[in-house]
Design goal:
Strand order of the largest sheet of chain A: 1-2-7-5-6
CATH superfamily of chain A: RutC-like
CATH class of chain A: Alpha Beta
Structural class of chain A: alpha+beta
Shape of chain A: globular
Largest interface: A-B, 38 and 31 residues
Strand content of chain A: 25-35%
CATH topology of chain A: 60s Ribosomal Protein L30, Chain: A
Order of helices and strands of chain A: HEEEEHEHEE
CATH architecture of chain A: 2-Layer Sandwich
Number of strands of chain A: 7
Oligomer: homotrimer
Number of domains of chain A: 1
Chain lengths: 158, 158, 158
């Protein structure tokens, strides 16, 4: 069993710095549920490359393949927040991922787009990264980003 | 007190086979919270009849009453996932239901639509089926389905 | 340390009566997680002034500043539900806030709007009121309200 950090290395991925919140909230909240385990809530992470928001509507302005790459970038930011909060090695299970895709009204391939995020999460976290998911379209998102992803995990907090 | 399965029988309802995930995720995630109890997260279930997606926007393409029937069908799929994961008898409380209704911009009867799901959940699970709910409109949903519903429950896992 | 109720008094705020659910669901669900603590799920609270829904799309029909005031009003209703369920003094941590803002397609200032809610929650609950957040746009919401906010908290239930 390789660790999440070894897998990141094998995948040639460097986690981004965990972005600060865009407004009056916090990026993670941790609450114990007994037995040295806690629920970790992760705020909505928007598609961005460093400080530059990745914007535009799918599929007219951003094709599905590119949107899936951006979903992957959002998932990396989810992981960066988990790493900053408790460390990736402490993830017992990712429980819930909610993904909003900025969509034209007739677009229905949100699942393909969100697979970019889901596959990255399992590549890095292994079986612990499997998660339930709701993928939905949105007519408008903060800063007109292409994707926003929020998550809940259960983690070991000793 | 009749059991959920007896109630299904009385209602003349056969649970659908729990559909496999449409993409790279899992349908349920279970995490213990002590005392033989666990949180059960259920992935977004989309409106479908067997393998055929039930698509179209409310109310122009799908009238409210028909959309409420489709919400009920989504809720049956939520129950089918719970049954497959831990068994309906083990539900202590349904905690949270989130419902997205594919809507025209000026449609505001998402609560009426989602009542189709909420009423079914209480008919089958009794008091354990009462739940908090957020019903919202969406401009676009996977495969252009009319409804998507995700849920969280607390269940007995012995 | 002042209590949430003292802070409400200092802020000159009277909590609204907790509105009854608009449909077939309940406003809160409470489930123990051990050690005299429970998860509290709060149903989506819509923007309203007493019985009158506060409707309209941001920013064309409702400017950002007014929408932020309405988000604040939604947050007050979240607090009213918490008070009715367990009492504001019992909040250990607000964990998750999800906010939907009725938006034109090119609107991207949902974070500014939702700050109206987030800031009120921290003003009243102090550090316990800090929360993770997902702010998203919606093309349609129940009764065409401007804002809907759902939340999850961990509370002391002794």
């Amino acid at each position: 069993m390789t660790s999440p950090k070894e897998r990141l290395r094998e995948l040639g991925i460097t986690l981004p710095a965990p972005p600060p919140p865009a407004a009056s909230y916090v990026q993670t909240r941790l609450t114990p549920i007994g037995d040295g385990r806690s629920l970790l809530y992760i705020a909505g992470q928007v598609s961005a490359d460093g400080d530059r928001f990745l914007t535009g509507r799918c599929p007219d302005e951003v094709p599905v393949e590119e949107a899936a790459q951006r979903a992957r970038a959002c998932a990396l930011r989810v992981l960066a927040q988990v790493e900053a909060a408790v460390g990736l090695d402490q993830v017992e299970q990712l429980l819930q991922v909610t993904g909003w895709v900025l969509s034209t009204d007739d677009f229905g391939d949100q699942p393909k787009v969100m697979n970019g995020a889901s596959e990255l999460l399992v590549e890095v976290l292994g079986a612990a990264g499997k998660h339930t998911r709701a993928a939905v379209g949105a007519s408008a998102l903060p800063f007109s980003v292409t994707i926003e992803i929020a998550a809940v995990a259960v983690v070991r907090t000793g």
